[in-house]
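Question (not urgent): is this output format expected?
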Amino acid sequence: MDSELVARRASDGLQFTLRRLASLGAGITMLALTIGAATFATGWWVFDGSGRPKWVVIGGFLSFGPAVAATLATWRVRRAADHAPGLLAEIKSFSAGNRSADVLVDYDSGQPVAMTGRSLGALRLDLDARSKEFPALSAGVRAITTAPKLVAMAVLGMMAAGALGTVLLIGGLID
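Got this back:
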């Protein structure tokens, strides 16, 4: 398979994955902000008087921590997407002189890894050491490998914040 075609397919696959992750991150951020605001407002209502200063700190962290994680994921992906025009040239250059580039493209099928879901861990380690040389590729692989973890933390945090808000609401209504 032509190396130009393989590099173009890998670049397109990475850009497609970055766009999907940015969209997912933005949606999770908005949902996390909504749940966090509702939980924080419920806690503000329940903890009146002397409990409010503690709630501002503890409740603020518990309520808005998931939104911060989702925002960080979205920012990282969008920053990588800003470098997307340089991906094709960097993929060509990187794959020409690097053995770990085999992780980036499956030469049997010609599919970019971003499309087949293989691990990018070895590639990320190599790119972290050479991030000045390949800024677009390094940012793209870093975003693809860390954004899902941040989004998962945000989703779990939203579930915890939602449960906390529900418990506070029930406690406030009973009291």
